[in-house]
Amino acid sequence: ATLLWEGYREIARLAETSERPAAYRKLLAEGEQAALRLQTAVKAGNLSSRSDMLKLVRKNCVSCHKQYRN
After folding, report:
1. What is the rounded CA–CA span in Å between residue 21 and residue 36?
2. Cα–Cα distances in Å, from 68 out to 16, 37, 50, 62?
3. pLDDT of amino acid 46
4. Mean pLDDT, range 12-35, rounded to an integer
């Protein structure tokens, strides 16, 4: 979860990210927040919340990749 969150933060820092559409940057920020929430749930050992946050992260990834990558 930590590596995922750090990945989002690093992508946001790339110069090319600022050139992307606002909708892309919004999805990126939402993904970063979801990854942070997942990280928090993992650290807390909360299995239910961890599962919910993982679903949220996956939903964000699919949405962004559908529009901007695939």
Report:
1. 23
2. 13, 24, 27, 10
3. 87
4. 96
